[in-house]
Every structure is written in structure tokens, then in C-alpha cells.
Amino acid sequence: MARKTPRKSKPRSRKRSASKRPGFVRRLLPYLLLLGCIAAAVLAAYMLYLDSEVRAQFEGTRWTLPAKVYATPQELYAGLDLSRDQLRGRLARQGYRASSDLSKSGTYRATGNRLDIHTRAFDFWDGKQAAREIRLRFNNSGVSSLEAIDDGDDLALLRLDPLLIGSIYPAQGEDRILIKLGEIPPMLPAGLITVEDRDFMNHWGVSLKSIARAAWANIQAGRVVQGGSTITQQLVKNFYLNNRQTLARKAKEALMAVLLDAHYSKPEILEAYLNEVYLGQDGSRAIHGFGLASYFYFQKPIQELQPNEIALLVAMVKGPNYYNPRRHPERARTRRDLVLNMFHDAGFLNDAAWREAKESDLGVSANSTRTSSQYPAFIDLVQRQLKGQYKDSDLTEEGLRIFTTLDPTVQASAEERVANGLDRVESERGIEADSLQAAAVVTSVEGGRVLAVVGGRDSGYAGFNRALDARRPIGSLIKPVVYLTALKQPSKYSAITPLDDSPLAVKLPNGDTWRPQNYSKRSHGDAVPLHYALTHSYNLATARLALDVGIPNVIDTLKKLGYPEDPLAVPSLALGAVDMAPLQVAQIYNTLAAGGYRTPLLAIRDVTTRTGEPLQRYPLQLERAIDNGPVHIVDWIMQRVARHGTGASAYNILPNSLDVAGKTGTTDELRDSWFAGFAANRLAVVWVGRDDNKPADLTGSTGALQLWARIMADIEPRSLIDAPPENVIEVPLRLRSGSSSARGCGDTTPVPFMRGHVPDGLSSCDSDIMQENVRRRQQEEQDEGNWLQRLFR
Amino acid sequence: MIKQSVILVAVLVLAGCAATQRTSFPPPDTGPPQPPTQPPPEQQPQPGEQPGDQPDDSTEPSEPPPSVRQPPEEMPPRSAAEASSPAVMSLLGRSETLARSGRMGMAAATLERALDLEPRNAFVYQRLASVRLAQGQASQAEAMARKSNSVAGNNPFVRADNWGLIAEARRTAGDNGGAEEATARADDYRSTSARMTQ
Questions:
Q1: In the predicted model, what is the mean pLDDT of chain B?
Q2: A and B: number of Cβ contacts within 8 A
Q3: Is the dihedral of CA A332, A334, A335, A340 positive or negative?
Q4: Which residues of chain A from 304 to 333 reach within 8 Å of chain B, CB to CB?
Q5: What is the pLDDT of residue B2?
Q6: Which of the four pLDDT bands, split at 50, 70 and 90, describes residue A217?
Q7: pLDDT in tens, A55-76
Q8: Is position A100 annotated as part of the catalytic site?
Q9: I need a surface site. Which of A36, A236, A479, A698 has the fewest CB within 10 A?
């Protein structure tokens, strides 16, 4: 408005000439007045329109909030088998910082065998947990005691706040965590004002002073080097307008900024800005607001940010991608230090704190340096389990909180072991580098919780999720299912039933003939003990057994164990001619590992609203799918697979004292390499192969098992417990172990049998080959006869 | 409605019993209590058992093992307190409080948290069975009780209570024959445990 006045008064000469014709001006004046009135009315109407737009947006739901996904929290208690260093690593990953005075939450202090932690408050699905100061003591086996320092009480257990592992954000990709002005370190808003808009507290939404300053700077530079936008204008630009740089848009922006400033207080505008501002990119996900940026760059809540971290975030406002501290650390550091100088000049930092902050490194958390979100394969599973239960908009807009079963430590081990393991296998076996792919799933056995999902070699890449979507023939992984089907008929089959491993040919309905072969291309005779045939994964014996029990019965067992589909009832199913994804295999083996109790594998435990109201639980569901007696016998044989059979190389890596069970799987022409196996508390399934389905030149044991054993060694496995269920008894037998056929009762192994179904004529110290026992008894009878004859001769 | 309240009362009585047991710990004659973090002792292969001497049986044993020949110092845990860590005990306490105030879903969730800590604790599965029963989920209650049996080793105290719960669950589901059978098994285990405590 102010500018128009001089312009009006400019044409003085014309005024003079017009005065010669006073009637003309007098006649024109009403029209001019009318025109002015119309213009004013139009402007007023436009202002009213803008005003309603400004207010509607500002007072309504300003932002949609993507659902937040959390990992399972670390439980702390006396007896936890976690070393002090492991726990420190976990704290560091969650942005806890070492501090000698422990005065703020999110800090810890390590001295001697102690670890003191000032935990963070957190709203769990079952209620709020306040911040606590606690002390943990450690011994060789882990946490030996837990107490509260704040009130000196004994504390039975406490959860750490869970790691935020991702968001479910909409297609356009805006993600944020809302913060309130009152809960953030005061240095952040004050510093932001100092750097971005010094006059913020005084101007009316636009600042002529800064426009002039910017104009002057631009004129001097001969190009646009500085913007004169206030924080209010920047907010308006992000909030209401698109990104086009036109003069009209600039004017509209200024008008709206003035309106915004007139309607709302400075703190309200500042808070909106802090939540709106764009601070980085994570693949297709845009990081908005300081609340999320704090997690994205430092893995911690905004309350805990240190001066150097605050300065970095403020520095990045100018250009989040240009000053990306992960991609351009030097640029980011230079600008951060500049901002720290401004903080110092403004008096926010004393000399000591200023120097300390400048000396600190950027402090950006290392574990999210990838370009996409941290656990894409796991979050993919979470989204699939949520599908059908929530609308997409519920997930992307309502700020739901999703508590999952992911164990970040297990996930980290699995990812690392998959990536390193493939490198190792390739180099050791002379396989072309980077030609192999892999997938892994880890579960908790009891409770069926999915602890980790690795979807491929580059686990940070959100591409093809092999753990869920790569369906490959499972090969010999099916064999325990075949043997379990047989052992469910205890009157016909036991662990030592002799199986026929001689060649067979089956005429198929389509006229073809199916001729399975052993891996060694040799037959092992017609009386291989059942347990031995599974331990060494004999194809011929297994094919004959499956045909004896009936392929439909094998399918029935497979479905009871948790396979949801209907495989083709063909003889080759006996040797694994059915395609499954690693997660499906994990479901089946989890039922085997849990004593025949089937629990649907779950990645989610609870969903709450934004404010913590429980919305949905995913309770533990158990089904007694298969009697635990036969399952126990199959598990016993799978322990022998790991000790003596195709899986024996596991013990090159695992400690000898650890009892695990498992099974290798290899498919035609060595295309797929599988291992599925478990300890008492951990189950892992690993697949290795090629995406193009060409031969990988790996068996189950040379490929997947090598990765499996290393994952297992890392994730605190507990030894399997051998106690047989009520309906199983154990008979000590001498087992065929290849070479030794020593007589007498020396080296025996307890062999499980269904109660009431121990084969006739078997007694302790017998062999697992019935004919040998018969021969031995005949020999003994003869000997006895000779002895009697001698006596009475 | 009446049925549900009967079950609720039964559960509360059971929970009450368990609580009493816990507070009356340690048991009078079994020597020092076991370290709380250890799992319950597992079933050992029974000495002197001759293979092949068992009557022919279906896959599901219709009778419990006739006697448990364990010396008194191997007395299996009778209450959760004897077999659970302080951490699990605190969760059991919390879930009991929740169950008493009728917040069964939360009570169950708290028990699941206890299972994360001790996945083979028969007492936790047992409490979960009683909470499921109170929620009217008979088949889940039975499954939990049977799972409790499967991790209870040779513990007649736990098994007796589990079969009691299974009987309740079957009655709720209208299976009176099955309920009677379960009750009979509960009684068998009770007499076994009575013999042990003599």
C-alpha cells in the first residue's frame, strides 16, 4: 500500500495540464473512487477467502500421521543372559548417551561390573512406564541384579523404551512425529529464530528489513543468494502453496503470512513450523519436522538432543539434501559450525560449551545410513499382517502405534550373517561374486513370534522380499513331515523300523515314470533303520516310506503343521516337490519345534491409538496340531541330523554342548540350498540360491547351513531339552554309526519309542538293526546250549 | 451368563489358591528352595523300566504313569514361586490383579510377556489357561492346559490342576463325557501328588 502513494503523485505535469480542464477530473473522480472501492472490495473479499483458507488449514487436522512401528522392547531383569557390553551396544543403538551424572533420561553410566541407566518414559500398550534410574550388576552369565537407584527399591523387571523401526506412510511419502513447543530444548526454537528469522518475534509475518537485506545481498551478488522469507512465510509456503516461484505466488504468500500472524500467536506459528519443516529424504519417505528428524538422524527423542545435534538440525533447514550429514558430512559440518558460532554469539552457548560442541563429530546414528528404511523386509511382513484389518488411511493417517515382535539384536545378527555368509560361501567355493541370494526368518519357537526377517543379501534394500515371496521347492525339508506321518502310526513304524532303500520306479498317471535317486546315486540296501535314513537324507527309503503311508496322509500332516495350501498329491512330493517361501517353512518347523503345538507366526503383538488406547491385541493362539509323542521322535532324529548326519558341519561353528535339531534341503541340480533348524528358544530357516533359478552349486549343507549355524551361534540359543513326553519311553540301544559294530553293551543311546509300541523282542543294549539282535540271541542260545552241554557232558 | 460367572468364580478361587501357595512358600519339608531362575526339573528316564512292558495304548495315554518314583529331594515345584524367577513372579502378580478386576485381555497379555521370559514355564501356561477359560475360550483354555502339561515334565501337582482346568473347559464346551474323563485324570494326579507329599 505504501508504495502506491508515491506512484499516484508522480505525474505532476499532467495534473497541471488537467487543472486546465477541472471539469474532466471532477467528472472522472467518482469513477476512480468507484474503481478504488471495487478494487478494495475485491481485495477484501480475496483476503477473506485467504483468511478462511489459512484458518481452516491451521485449525483443522494439520497433518496426517503415519503409523509408528516399534520393535519388541528389551526386558531387563536379574537372570537375563545379556552381557554388559551387549546391553551398552543396545543402548547406543537407541541413542542413549554416556553421562556421569545420569541426570537426564536417555543416559547411562558404566563403572566396573555395573551399568546405571536413566531410562526414558514410554507409553506401552499396557500403560505408561515412567522414566527410572536403575542399576544393573553383571557377572559371567549376564545380569546378576537389578535395583532402582531413584527410590532404592528392588525392581523385578523393567522394559527399555522400544526402538522405533519405521512408519507406515502414504504414497506421497510424508512422515513425521508431532512435538509440542513446551517439550523441546529451548535452544532449538531460539536457535532456529536466530539463524532463520531474527525478527520473528516482532514482525507482522513479513519483514521488510529482511527483504531489503536479501535484496541488497542479491544485487551485490548479481544472482539470488539469499531469501527474505520469514519463518511465517516459509510455513505458509510449505503449508498452503505449491513450489512455483512466481511473483503472484510471492504476493499471496506475503498476504497469507500477514493473516497467519494476525490470527495466531508466535509460539503457535513456531510450533507449526517445527512440525512442518522438511528435513531430509529416506527413499520415498520425506522426513518432516524436528520430532522425526531427531529419530532419523540421532535415534533419540528430541528432548535429549545436545547442542551440537540441535545446531546440525537447524543448519539443515537451509537445504536438507545439500547439507545431508550422511552423504555430505563435510558440508554439513561446516554449516553446523557456522550455526554453533551464531549460537555462541547470541549467548546460547558459553565458551566452553561452544568449543566442546565444535569439537564433537556430527553424531549421526550409524545404523540408518542406508537410503531406505531400516527393516524393510520385516515391515513388509507387518503390513501384510495388518492388511484386511485396517484401511490404508487408518495406517497412514491416524498415528497408530504398532508394537511388533522384531528383536533388533537378532535382526542385526541375521542380516550380517547373511551378507557375510554369502561372501564367504562364494569365495570359498569359487562361485561368482554377488551371484547368490539368500533369505532368512528367525522365530522364538514358543509363542511363534517372528524375531527377524532378512529378505535378501542387501537387507536395507526394500526390493523383492525373498523371505515372504521367493517360493522354491523345499527338497529334503519335507522329509521330517514324511517320517512324522509314519511315526503317527506307532503300531507300524518306530525309529528303528527297517526301511527299504532300493531303487524304485513309479508309473505316473501321465505315462511318465518317476525314478528317484539317492544323492550318492547308490542304494543302501533293504533294511536301513528309519532314523538313519532320515539322518542321512536317503531319497529312496523316504520315497518308499511316503508311498507306503500315502501321499495324501503326508499332505494332511503338512497342513496340520501349518502349511495353508493344497500341494499336488504326486509321488515326488515325498522328496519336496512343493514350492514354499522361507516364512512358510518356518511355520511348519516351528510347530515341529514346539512339540506339535501350532501357533500362527506373528509379527505384531499390539496396536494402540496415537494416545495409547489399546486397539487390537494379537493374542497367543495354540492348537495341539499333532500328538507330541511322534513329534518328539522326529525332533530326536533331527538332532541326530545335526550331530551325525547331513547337518553335522553345524558343529564346526556351534559349541559342542549345544543341542540343536534341523534338516538340510537341496533341490535338483543344486538350485536351492535350504536349512531349517532350531534350539529350544530359537528357530531359523535359511534359503540360498539364485534369483534366476540357475544352479547355485550348493547343497543344503554347503550353503544355507553355513549361514544358519553362524546366525544361530549369535542369537543366544538354548540347548534343546530331551525330556520325552508322557507317552514316550526311551530304550538304550547301540546305534549303527557306520563302522563300529562292537558287541556288548558299551556305547548306547537312548532311543525314543511310543509307550506300548516298543518292537517285540527288543531289549536294552540291543542294536537298532533287528536282524542283528535276532542273530545275536541265536548265537547266545547256541553258546548257552554248548555251555550246558559242556556241563553235562 | 450364569455359566460364565461360575467359571469366573472358579478361576478366581484357583488364582486365590495359587496366591496362597505362593505366600505360604517355602514348603515345609523339601529343604532349601531351588534357585528361582532355574526351570522346573525335567522328567528323567525312569530307572528300572523295561521296554515293551507297557500295555498297548493309543497315542494318547489314557492313564497317567502309575507312580512317580522320585526321591523327596527331587520333589517337583508345587507353586509358581518355586519354579519362576522374580521377574516372572512380578508379572504373574500383575496379571492376577488384572484378572481380578476383570481385565482378562490385559491379564493374558501380561502372562504372554512372562512366557517371553520363560517360554517353558508350566505355571504360566496354566494361568493362561484359566484366563482363557474366564474369557469363555474353552478350546484355547484346553490347548494352554495341555501345553502346560507338555512342559511340566513329571509334575503331578501341575498336571492335576491342568486336568482340572481341562475338565472345566470341556464342560463349558458341552463335552460332559470328556470332562468326566479329565476329572478322573485330575484325581489320579491328585492322589499321586498326595502320595509324594506324605
A1: 74
A2: 127
A3: positive
A4: none
A5: 53
A6: confident
A7: 877 877 678 899 999 999 999 9
A8: no
A9: A36
The set of cell numbers assigned to A632 is 518328539
A182 by DSSP, 3-state: which? helix
Q: Could you tell me how far CA A238 lies from the centroid of its own chain?
A: 32
- Which residues 485-514 of A have a C-beta within 8 angstroms of B? 488, 490
Q: Where does the pLDDT of residue A21 fall: very low under 50, low under 70, confident under 90, or very high at 90 and above?
A: low
As a whole number, mean pLDDT of residues B163-167 equals: 97
**For residues A775 and A379, which has the higher predicted lDDT (pLDDT)?**
A379
- Among B128, B135, B150, B159, the residue to mutate for chain A (most A Cβ within 10 A): B150
The SS3 assignment for A385 reads helix
A392 touches chain B (CB under 8 A): no
Find the helix or strand (DSSP H, E) in which B96 lies.
Answer: helix B86-100
Chain B positions touching A496 (Cβ under 8 A) are: none
Interface of A with B in 6-65 (CB under 8 A): none
Considering the candidates A413, A476, A673, A767, report the single residue annotated as catalytic. A476
Overall average pLDDT of the A680-708 stretch: 96
Burial track B146-170 (b if 16+ CB lie within 10 A, e otherwise): bbbbbbbbbbbbbbbbbbbbbbbbb
All three cell numbers of A367: 545404523
- The cell for A484 is 512324522
Q: 3-state DSSP call for residue A67? A: strand
A435-452 pLDDT, tens digit each: 999 999 999 999 999 999
Contact A574, A377 (CB under 8 A): no
The residue from A174, A196, A304, A415 that is catalytic is: A196
Say whether A446 and B112 touch across the interface (CB within 8 A).
no
Please give the average per-residue pLDDT across A319-324, as a whole number: 94
Q: Which pLDDT tens digit goes with each residue over B150-162?
A: 999 889 999 999 9
| pLDDT band at residue A453 under the 50/70/90 scheme | very high
Summary mean pLDDT of chain A: 89
How far CA B69 is from CA of B43, B64, B193, in Å, comes to 11, 13, 11
The alpha carbon torsion through A723, A728, A731, A736 (nearest 10 deg) reads -90
Angle at A419 between CA A93 and CA A638, to 5 degrees: 100
- The reply to whether residue A606 touches residue B60, judged by beta carbons under 8 angstroms, is no
Which pLDDT does position A419 carry in this prediction?
94
Residue A649 DSSP code? G
Active site residue A196: yes
Which residue type occupies A55? Answer: R
Residues in chain A: 793
Contacts of A411 (CB under 8 A, 6+ apart): A71, A375, A378, A442, A451, A452, A453, A454
Cα Rg of chain B, angstroms:
17
Q: Quick: pLDDT tens for B63-116.
A: 444 443 444 447 888 888 888 999 999 999 999 999 999 999 999 999 999 999
Contacts of A681 in chain B (CB under 8 A): 119
Query: Reduced to 3 states, what is the DSSP secondary structure of residue A333?
Result: helix
Provide DSSP, A434-490. T--EEEEEEE-STT-BEEEEE-SSSTT--S--HHHH--EE-GGGGHHHHHHHHHTST
* Residues, chain B: 198
- Counting DSSP H helices and E strands in chain A, the numbers are 25, 32
| Pick from B45, B55, B128: CB nearest A730 | B45
Which helix (H) or strand (E) segment holds residue A134: the answer is strand A133-139
Burial (0-12, 13-18, 19+ Cβ within 10 Å), A229: buried
- Residues in B closer than 8 angstroms to A755, CB to CB, are 54, 57, 61
Q: Are A129 and A159 in contact (CB under 8 A)?
A: yes
For residue A716, is it left (φ>0), alpha (ψ between -120 and 50) or beta? left
Question: How far, in Å, CA of A446 to CA of A593, rounded?
Answer: 8
